[in-house]
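Subject: design request, 236 residues
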């Protein structure tokens, strides 16, 4: 079923399809799954050239053992309401963390971010995160420090002013995209400096000058896109 976890038989079919040279869409049709599921499964288990059904199954079992359980209900109202599947949400949180790792975030940072993201309140204390993720307070402290420095979470005090809460809000991707645009601008400026140093007429200088133009243009387009989306003028 499309919403269920991949079985060992599904993984064997994926490996067989890859060996036959089938594309991801064709393999997805064979096992009646979305193409995105097949793409993610192959990407997280070595890619098309290294995918092995048995290895993928063992890796999935290991991730499931490491994966935090669903956030438990607390006095702060951060639990999951009745009617939703805790196991499915925990699985989603784990897969979100895996995806964020593939996109470049450190593992613990990705786990903290995904844990916050699937919590209705969007706010957890350090103690909550330690309990839900099954890790040390030091690991959580380092991860939330990284996220706070990147502007992806806010530090707040609870109603009694005793415990620090870490909060995620709807602007996280807006701030993330702006941060990405700023990094592109820095890279563009650095590349432009290198082009001037090496000389615009040299192959190396031309290469850096082209990179600078590209990075600057992408950064500008990204800022315009997120600002337009945030203001609502770019929404259909």
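Subject: RE: design request

Done. Sequence follows.
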């Amino acid at each position: 079923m499309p919403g269920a976890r991949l079985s060992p038989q599904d993984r064997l079919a994926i490996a067989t399809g890859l060996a036959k040279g089938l594309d991801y869409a064709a393999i997805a049709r064979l096992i009646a799954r979305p193409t995105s599921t097949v793409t993610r499964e192959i990407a997280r288990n070595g890619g098309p050239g290294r995918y092995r059904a048995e290895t993928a199954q063992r890796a999935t079992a290991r991730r499931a053992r490491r994966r935090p359980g669903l956030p438990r209900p607390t006095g702060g109202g951060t639990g999951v309401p009745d009617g939703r599947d805790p196991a499915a949400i925990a699985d989603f949180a784990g897969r979100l963390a895996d995806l964020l790792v593939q996109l470049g975030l450190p593992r613990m940072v990705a786990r903290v971010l995904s844990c916050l993201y699937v919590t209705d309140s969007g706010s957890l204390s350090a103690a909550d995160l330690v309990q839900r993720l099954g890790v040390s307070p030091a690991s959580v402290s380092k991860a939330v420090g990284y996220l706070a420095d990147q502007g992806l979470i806010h530090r707040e005090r609870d109603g009694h002013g005793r415990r620090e809460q870490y909060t995620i809000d709807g602007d996280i991707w807006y701030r993330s995209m702006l941060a990405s645009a700023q990094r592109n601008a820095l890279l563009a400026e650095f590349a432009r400096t290198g082009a001037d140093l090496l000389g615009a007429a040299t192959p190396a200088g031309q290469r850096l000058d082209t990179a600078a133009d590209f990075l600057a243009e992408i950064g500008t387009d990204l800022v315009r896109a997120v600002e337009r989306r945030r203001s609502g003028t770019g929404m259909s």
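The first helix runs from residue 8 to 19.
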